[in-house]
Amino acid sequence: MRLASVAAFLCCASLHLSAAVPPGEAAILRGIDSSVQDRVTRVLSFTDVEHYSVFRGSDRTHPAAQMTVQVTYRKGIGKSYQILAQSGSALIRKFGLMPLLENEKTINLPGNVERSWFTSANYEMHLKPGGPQPLNSRTCYVLSITPRRAAPNTLLGTLWVDATTFAIAQVDGFASKNPSIWSGATHMMRQYTDIQGIPMAIHARAESTSNVFGRSVVIIDYGDYQLQLAPSASRRLQ
User: Fold this and answer.
1) What pLDDT score does 78 carry?
2) Class for the domain spanning 26-237
3) Would you kindly state where each structural domain of the chain is located, as residue ranges?
């Protein structure tokens, strides 16, 4: 009886210990790839409202230019924009914000968008030491990411993914290739939130230096999401 009790105790202790051990790097990468694929499969279309603010030099209080746009995304087609409001420097809006919007349209065209996904096919990813870390009330795995090809829309930096769902929570780093010979290194950060089970951008920041505009910071806030989703795999199986 005593031996049986000891064996049962050791078995339970072993199960609890196993449950506490986080998955290895390979399992986390599979989880990230699966999360990205689920998003790609389920998001048929969405609209949102994005507010862009440009700050020049050391001024972080008074935006030099602002623009509010409504974005429409359709799977297999890409993104389109409607400008709702704009103010500030016409020069910055014309040569700073409009090219940024056009670049987003190009990136999201079929055949291009696949290369910007944060997957193991597009990036070398390695789990950083220290275990799961807190981020904005979430527990996340933290990975270093290196793009397999250099491009203005791929980042060399750090990726945070939710430790439960493996959905992207934040990315931070430098563009692996400068967008033009006139600009310096661009530092970018984007945060995501869960909307209807889908990770969607909620806040972004990009900082760069150019010969034309000097040091500039672009802040982007996203909101008013309306998503059209396909049923999840679990619902399709029911």
Assistant:
1) 95
2) mainly beta
3) 26-237
